[in-house]
Amino acid sequence: MTQTITVIRGDGIGPEIMDATLHVLDAMQLGLQYEQADAGLAALEKHGELIPQATMDSIRKNRIALKSPLTTPVGEGFRSINVELRKRFDLYANVRPAKSFPNTKSRFPGGVDLITVRENTEGAYIGEGQELSADGETALLTQKVTRRGSERIVRYAFELARKTGRKKVTVVHKANILKSTSGLFLKTARAVAEEYPDIQCDEMIVDACCMKLVMYPESFDIIVTTNLFGDIISDLCAGLVGGLGLAPGANIGSEAAIFEAVHGTAPDIAGQGKANPCALLLGAAQMLDHLGLPDKATALREAIIATLEAQDSLTPDLGGTGDTMSFARAIASRI
Ligand code: NAD
After folding, report:
1. pTM above 0.90, yes or no
2. Where is the Isopropylmalate dehydrogenase-like domain (predicted)?
3. CA separation, residue 128 to residues 39, 89, 93, 226 (Å)
């Protein structure tokens, strides 16, 4: 196989975790070609813009990108680069697995293995209708939910369940209060669910879902929900399995798919070799699934698990004395 992917090394710890990730992918001899592209602060310094046209062209051409975290400068009128990428490529599905791994700081050392599928383009995050009255006393926000947007995200969740052999999809909503927006999402989800009689579907109000996630996280399989709820729930789930160091995310659309670590640029540890590369590596595993290489994705995940079990060269956030690259070498040696 020869597949070219766009590689964005990003800011802060981004270049370190990307080097580590590419080291492991190279060891797997997948025949991947990398096209380096700039974004974030690195791009602003080099090209005078946060997302140069060449980067957009590269993603559009290759349709697959592996991306390290990016810094969006604060308070200088810049829009979030990640939101911009989602908009430009209509990356409507944000897919965030949360799985218990050995030897991590998790309150649930075993049993959590769920995926949050979050609608990524609608809801409260459309950036429209945000107003503060002239006297600063009243703020307004517009939310948008469409049948088309709801249908495609719920369908994505059910198709993912079928593809990965998962048994249940939980539709999370607040239709009892947000009758129009959440109501439309729920109604649409019910109609889609009927097309998948082989997959169990249940419904849960978002607040009850949060409580149940903390008490019985092992009872969940796939969660599908709207943008704001999905944003919060997916971080809650990352917390269940020991934090952001092991949380990957995929942003999937019809034109492109971007795979990443959920955490940020970690400026406090940048350049020190302390960054845990696992989240981006797990993002790369999602990319291999997406490329139709599930066996390779599984091999990568198993090598990560074996390295964690052996506590071989782990980074300081996992209580180890290794560094980013020694951790990556330990993983690569187990593939
Ligand atoms: P952060 O995730 O960068 O850091 C939070 C804490 O987690 C820090 O203590 C950091 O050291 C630690 N941490 C994060 N990743 C780690 C890793 N791989 N290994 C070990 N420790 C790790 O969150 P923040 O400090 O709120 O954000 C910093 C910057 O990142 C901001 O500029 C923000 O805009 C950006 N950001 C980018 C993305 C993205 O591009 N996807 C996502 C979130 C934040």
Report:
1. yes
2. 4-331
3. 25, 19, 20, 17
